[in-house]
Amino acid sequence: MTAPQNKRTTLFLLIALAALLFAVFFFFSSNQTSKVGAREYRVVLQDNGFYPEKLQIQKGDTVTFTTERREPFWPASNLHPSHTIYPEFDPKEPIDPDKSWSFRFQKIGNWKYHDHLAPLFRGEIMVSEKTSAKELAFLVDECKKGGYKKECWEKVIAEAIKSKGVEAALNVLQDNLAFFPNDCHDLTHSIGEAAYRVFSQHQDLVLSPKTYYCGYGFYHGFMETLLQTTGNLEQAREFCAYADIQLAGQTGDVEGSCYHGIGHGTVDGGDPRNWGNAKAVIAQGLDICARLGSTEAQIDRCASGVFNSLAIAYNSSSYGLSLPRENPYGICKEQVKPYFKKPCYEEMNTTVIRLGSSFADAARYVENIRENVYANYAIEALAGYAVFFYSEERDPARHIADCRSLQARLQITCIKGFAAGLVEHAAPESEYLESLAFCSNTLLTDEERQACFNRIIFYLSRLYPPEKLQEICQTLKEEYRKYCPENV
Q: Residues 6 or more apart from 438 whose CB is under 8 A from it?
């Protein structure tokens, strides 16, 4: 072979090799790009059919089919037996019962399918277009332009969790809280509800420390939806334990808030025939709490959800309930077990506050509670909710004066309650700012300040990881740092 021929051959091989490398690179990069943000779901063929029967996913997501029946199965697109509506959605052969089959949906639409070997078993996969970050930002801007419309923000949050996950939805909430300051808890409820739908579709649910936002509304929404959908109490308990373990060291009171959500769900999904009778409305929920909780703390937190729902029911005309103005805490006094009595006195705050023309006026009902320990539980909760209920009239000097106008036995606890309310109803990640400023107020006596800092630092330790709590503690005067945990 001549030298020119050698050069031409070498050049040809180099070009061919470059083309091959480009093709390989293009293949892998295109596959990697197309899978960014894609999710995997599971559908199980059970004895009574596919579960979930209907599944909402986005373009590019993968569904893996398995069976619990001890015989082969064959999930495939309608129509039976040709499978022609979505012909690619077809494994082309039976799947052994110990195997699975996965399919990535690239076509938008509602795709009905069946088990080719048992065509009475049917399901549907609903595939929508994926919402991009740019499209999500556009939706947020539209909500901002339209002023406050709760429905608009609920739609944005639903899109965020569907396309980006729980963390993204909580980020949307945190970044735009100024547009819905009084509905933060309700919107975290919505995130919890949407998260349960993801969870129920057999998709892995990664929990974020931000699920504590706005009074742990996430767990309330999640648990209420779970119980109203399946009524599976064991699954509810297992999820609470799972959440507590997954977020250990990142935020506190996860398990407690989860049990509170269970209590909510037992009432909100209860028998309508009980409406009009307060005792009947809460009876089943309290019984479930007593059986479900393995510690008194768990029972207490579960019961707090029951009584919170009862208070909400009193404030709504839908349940046919009327709160006796002469004795609004009467149902609490009737409770025998301390783990029922305490949360009842605390959770009646949202309805008792409406009985007075001011906080001080409503607080007179608390002064009528003879048992000192329960009167203090009630006044702390009432003061905390007053921060939200009278949010436009927030004035530290007035709060302090209101507390000092009460019976001596309630004054310090009232101060602590207002401080705790400033934490509970503050913007996420900034809960410590206004509450610590309140505790530092020069109008407070030394005894009041000590009690205030003690209460707030404990509260913050339930919200923040040790690193953030340490930063906060370093900003405090030395005399108040003693309330910080030793390991911080």
A: 396, 399, 418, 419, 422, 452
Other Cβ atoms closer than 10 A to 38: 15
Q: pLDDT per residue over 1-12, tens digit each?
A: 454 444 444 444
Residue 173 confidence (pLDDT) above 80: yes
Give CATH for domain 40-128.
2.60.40.420
The single residue listed with the structure tokens 């979505």 is 86
Q: Read off the pLDDT of residues 76-111 as tens digits, 9 standing for 90 and up.
A: 999 999 999 999 999 999 999 999 999 999 998 999
DSSP string, 416-462: HHHHHHHHHTSPTT-HHHHHHHHHT-TTS-HHHHHHHHHHHHHHHHH
For residues 62 and 39, is the Cβ–Cβ distance under 8 A? yes
**Which run of H or E residues covers position 473?**
helix 466-474
Round to the nearest angstrom and report the end-to-end CA distance of the chain: 80
Listed in sequence order, the DSSP H helices in 127-252 are 133-145, 150-163, 166-175, 184-200, 213-229, 233-246
Whether the Cβ atoms of residue 169 and residue 156 lie closer than 8 Å to each other? no
Residue 211 exposure: Cα atoms within 13 Å on the Cβ side: 34
Rounded CA-CA distance 101/124 in Å is 16
Q: What is the model's pLDDT at position 336? A: 96
Residues forming beta bridges with residue 102, ordered by sequence position: 64
Q: Which residues contact 423 (CB under 8 A, 6 or more apart)?
A: 431, 432, 435, 456, 459, 460, 463
- Reference 217, options 157, 260, 250; nearest CA is 260
The amino acid at 286 = L
The identity of residue 389, as a single letter, is F
Q: Cβ(64)–Cβ(43) under 8 Å?
A: yes
| Contact criterion met (CB below 8 Å) for 457 and 483 | yes
CA–CA dist 315, 96 (Å, integer):
56
Domain range list for the chain: 40-128, 131-262, 384-488
Query: What pTM did the predictor assign?
Result: 0.73
Q: What is the signed CA dihedral for 223, 219, 390, 344, rounded to 10 degrees?
A: 60
Structure tokens at 63: 């569904």
Greatest mean pLDDT range, 53-62, 217-226, 456-465: 456-465
Neighbours of 181 (CB within 10 A): 13
Task: Give the pLDDT score at 202.
Answer: 65
Q: What is the pLDDT of residue 24?
A: 34
